């Protein structure tokens, strides 16, 4: 957990302003409507204050409360709840189980004396369904047991419109349209009082702690769940956000997007709805009220009222960026979209992405930086300007103000580390090469190409000449000195290559029709062959797009037919090629097939990518034929083969893509890859009614596996066939065919226990004959193997007895056949030829095979 300062707690109503020197007066409830603040106390008074907000340039705003008046309601009970209905100029006051209507300005009760009796608590419907602008909809929990009532409240009268009974006693309620979110004694539920339909959400023990039910937006509620979780629930009974983890002792909650604020006995905690992390903790003792009113969050103790003033989101984001917490800053920035006008947000968000990009760049996280620069539409000259002298002297560029980063130049950023500086220059070369032909370069191509030329020259990069001989916007007058300094010998050599490449460009012009020449009608294929075997990598990349635009199927051969030794040298990285082919779907499929099927590269990304491309093409074909074609297309057959043969693709990802696509066969294959064989076979049997496919599934899925695995699959399929159902007869026929055609794949004893007693022996004759034949064969094979093992054991036993049968005579005159020294003790090693050696000599011979040996040791 990393804290940020999202809110500041400021006082709104001091104790002296509310109660003076009266010690026993306590705040029971508060209500805020615009600048009007109402406070209800335990001695049955309602106080009206006028809030005045005073912005402070260097800090959070302050509030001044001016007391307007207070009025006693005529009871001896505390004021339990206050709700403002500004459209009616009425304040709804719950006191002594009765809701009274009073004027918001003078706190006088309405002359008609209209009130709602028998209310334990109540909530306003902020998404009303009546359509009448001169009334508000009020939902009360009645003092009558297990009863909810809906009322329409007008300026001077109330009208009951609905009474709902619940299964348990309701304790808290929030309303949205026709939907009630209720906390019952043991669970939360969503109830549609229009249709009478209820949906359980999750259990909750109200005896351990009071429930919390709060409407936080259209058709969405925040609930206090078990285990200290703040749970989100929609009227559909689902959660579209992950829960936040707050204290076990939370007594109040409020929402100020993008934060959930929770109150317990000692603290106010702030949690992000975007990443569910706790962001801030504010000490606050004796608090018992926490509510949000039109974006203003108010918290109160029994003696005072306070306001949580949010820091501007832009300030919070900049604080996060200053702390190098890029991910949190980006999450918060995305979440701020709903609170900021669209145009202002886009400008702000682009700047934040650019700042985040420079932070990642300074940490040498170049891939992340590049993506952020692209997403933030960075003026690439901001990046070039970090590198001294790369921008042309004629460039009019000035850095953004306020600055996007804190660095003067690359030397300061790397602190003079030459290795880091070299990495930064390699990144800029790569990045400029990528963006120079995109919209990013529009308007300042001279700056980009000139900077790239200088970087290539300094690094003696192979791409320098390629840059010069192709269309470019380099300012040679600005770069000449740089070229002479870094590569004086090569400065003029590029002219030779330029003239060498003219014939190749001429070929391209002829194929394009820019030059008329009918000498060769197959010139395009010749160019493809030339590029296929060309060793100049830059030249191949320069014309790859051109050959692919002419023909994707032929052009891709530039990459698929390259010699194997060149591929092994990594001259052409497959990832780079795939990135190049993204604009050419047919060529991309051909190249991935080349990698996966022809070259058998074991890389998950390639297998998954190919499967996704197959799937997308299948879905497009089905859409164009309105899904009527029952025959599998060629692409669909390729997809199935890939799914069956490969074990490298992301199964869960593809299964999610297949959801609802109407491709049950492919779904079954994927379930099989997950080991969910029963689910896969269920699809083949009950959805497709393809019994042959189910049998094939058992065969290919057990290919290369142990026999028990295949037997398990066939038994699973048989069990599915034998389950009673609407198509029991058809499945019974399939079961008989399965047994009769694959008798050797089953455990006959287990099958006989599974079969219905009504099946005849004649029906299963082929299965029984096959099972018997297999059983007899297995038994005889085991007998043969056992006999061979016994014979081998008998041979070894004979050899052992023969060796033990002869005596060995050892005397002090007997010499070791290796070292030729006599034996000093009766310990020796005997070889089959009868030779005797010392044990240490035998060990030495064993570790040194080049030494002489009398024979094989026993």
Please outline the helices and strands.
Blueprint (H helix, E strand, L loop, with lengths): L6 E7 L1 H5 L7 E7 L2 E6 L3 E12 L2 E14 L6 E7 L4 E6 L2 E6 L11 E3 L1 E6 L11 E7 L4 E7 L4 E8 L6 E5 L2 E5 L3 E6 L5 E6 L9 E5 L2 E6 L3 E6 L9 E2 L6 E5 L2 E5 L3 E6 L5 E6 L3 E7 L2 E6 L3 E6 L2 H10 L3 H10 L6 H21 L3 H10 L4 H5 L25 H5 L3 H18 L9 H15 L3 H7 L6 H11 L6 H20 L10 H10 L4 H14 L1 H4 L1 H4 L3 H5 L5 H8 L3 H14 L5 H21 L9 H12 L5 H8 L5 H10 L3 H11 L3 H11 L5 H16 L5 H14 L6 H7 L10 H41 L23 E2 L5 E2 L1 H9 L11
Helix pairs in contact: 2-3, 2-4, 3-4, 4-5, 8-9, 9-10, 9-11, 13-14, 19-20, 20-21, 20-22, 21-23, 22-23, 23-24, 24-26, 25-26, 26-27, 27-29
Pfam families: CNH (PF00780), Vps39_1 (PF10366), zf-Vps39_C (PF10367)
Keywords: Cytoplasm, Membrane, Protein transport, Transmembrane, Transmembrane helix, Transport
Main location: cytoplasm
């Amino acid at each position: 957990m990393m804290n940020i300062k999202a809110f500041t707690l400021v006082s709104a109503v001091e104790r002296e302003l509310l109660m003076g020197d009266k010690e026993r007066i306590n705040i029971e409830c508060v209500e805020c409507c615009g600048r009007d603040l109402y406070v209800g106390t335990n001695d049955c008074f309602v106080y009206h204050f006028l809030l005045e907000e005073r912005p402070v340039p260097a800090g959070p705003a302050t509030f001044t409360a001016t007391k307007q008046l207070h009025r006693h309601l005529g009871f001896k009970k505390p004021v339990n709840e206050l709700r403002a209905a500004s459209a009616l100029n009425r304040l709804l006051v719950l006191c002594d189980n009765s809701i009274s209507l009073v004027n918001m300005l003078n706190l006088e009760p309405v002359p008609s004396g209209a009130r709602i009796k028998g209310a334990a608590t109540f909530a306003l419907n902020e998404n009303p369904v009546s359509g009448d602008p001169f009334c508000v909809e009020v939902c009360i929990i009645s003092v009558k047991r297990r009863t909810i009532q809906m009322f329409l409240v007008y300026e001077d009268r109330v009208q009951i419109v609905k009474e709902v009974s619940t299964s348990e006693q309701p304790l808290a309620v929030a309303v949205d349209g026709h939907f009630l979110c209720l906390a019952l004694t043991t669970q939360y539920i969503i109830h549609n009082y229009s249709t009478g339909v209820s949906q359980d959400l999750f259990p909750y023990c109200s005896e351990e702690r009071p429930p919390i039910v709060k409407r936080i937006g259209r058709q969405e509620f925040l609930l206090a769940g078990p285990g200290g979780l703040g749970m989100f629930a929609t009227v559909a009974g689902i959660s579209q956000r992950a829960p936040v983890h707050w204290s076990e002792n939370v007594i109040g909650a409020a929402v100020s997007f993008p934060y959930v604020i929770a109150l317990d006995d000692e603290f106010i905690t702030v949690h992000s709805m975007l990443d569910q992390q706790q962001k801030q903790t504010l000490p606050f003792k004796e608090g018992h009220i926490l509510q949000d009113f039109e974006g203003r969050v108010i918290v109160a103790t029994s003696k005072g009222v306070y306001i949580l003033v949010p820091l501007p989101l832009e300030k919070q984001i900049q604080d996060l960026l200053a702390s190098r917490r890029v991910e949190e800053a980006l999450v918060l920035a995305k979440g701020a979209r709903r609170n900021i006008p669209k145009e202002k947000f886009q400008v702000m968000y682009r700047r934040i992405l650019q700042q985040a990009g420079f932070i990642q760049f300074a940490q040498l996280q170049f891939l992340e930086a590049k993506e952020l620069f692209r997403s933030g539409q960075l003026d690439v000259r901001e990046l070039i300007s970090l590198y001294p002298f790369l921008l042309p002297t004629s460039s009019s560029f000035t850095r953004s103000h306020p600055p996007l980063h804190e660095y003067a130049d690359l030397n300061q950023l790397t602190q003079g580390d030459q290795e880091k500086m070299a990495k930064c220059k390699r990144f800029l070369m790569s990045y400029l090469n990528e963006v120079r032909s995109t919209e990013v370069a529009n308007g300042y191509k001279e700056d980009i190409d000139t900077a790239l030329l200088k970087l290539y020259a300094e690094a003696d990069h192979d791409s320098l000449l390629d840059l010069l001989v192709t269309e470019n916007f380099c300012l040679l007058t600005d770069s000449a000195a740089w070229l002479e300094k870094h590569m004086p010998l090569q400065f003029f050599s590029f002219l030779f290559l330029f003239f060498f490449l003219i014939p190749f460009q001429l070929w391209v012009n002829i194929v394009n029709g820019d030059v008329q020449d009918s000498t060769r009608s197959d010139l395009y294929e010749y160019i493809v062959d030339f590029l296929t075997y060309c060793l100049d990598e830059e030249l191949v990349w320069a014309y790859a797009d051109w050959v692919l635009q002419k023909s994707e199927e032929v052009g891709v051969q530039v990459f698929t037919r390259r010699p194997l030794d060149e591929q092994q040298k990594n001259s052409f990285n497959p990832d780079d090629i795939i990135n190049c082919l993204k604009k050419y779907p047919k060529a991309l499929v051909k190249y991935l097939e080349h990698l996966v099927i022809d070259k058998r590269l074991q890389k998950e990304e390639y297998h998954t990518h190919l499967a996704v491309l197959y799937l997308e093409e299948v879905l497009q074909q089905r859409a164009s034929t309105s899904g009527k074609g029952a025959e599998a297309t060629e692409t669909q057959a390729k997809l199935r083969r890939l799914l069956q043969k490969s074990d490298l693709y992301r199964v869960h990802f593809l299964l999610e893509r297949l959801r609802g696509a109407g491709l049950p066969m492919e779904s079954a294959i994927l379930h099989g890859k997950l080991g969910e064989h029963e689910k896969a076979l269920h699809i083949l049997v009950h959805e497709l009614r393809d019994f042959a496919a189910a049998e094939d599934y058992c065969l290919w899925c057990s290919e290369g596996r142990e026999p028990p695995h295949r037997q398990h699959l066939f038994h699973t399929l048989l069990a599915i066939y034998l389950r009673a159902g609407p198509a029991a007869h058809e499945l019974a026929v399939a079961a008989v065919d399965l047994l009769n055609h694959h008798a050797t794949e089953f455990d006959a004893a287990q099958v006989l226990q599974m079969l219905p007693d009504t099946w005849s022996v004649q029906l299963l004759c082929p299965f029984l004959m096959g099972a018997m034949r297999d059983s007899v064969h297995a038994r005889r094979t085991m007998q043969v193997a056992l006999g061979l093992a016994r014979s081998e054991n008998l041979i070894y036993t004979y050899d052992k007895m023969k060796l033990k049968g002869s005596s060995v005579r050892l005397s002090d005159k007997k010499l070791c056949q290796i070292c030729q020294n006599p034996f000093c003790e009766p310990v020796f090693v005997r070889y089959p030829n009868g030779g005797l050696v010392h044990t240490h000599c035998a060990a030495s011979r064993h570790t040194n095979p080049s030494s002489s040996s009398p024979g094989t040791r026993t």
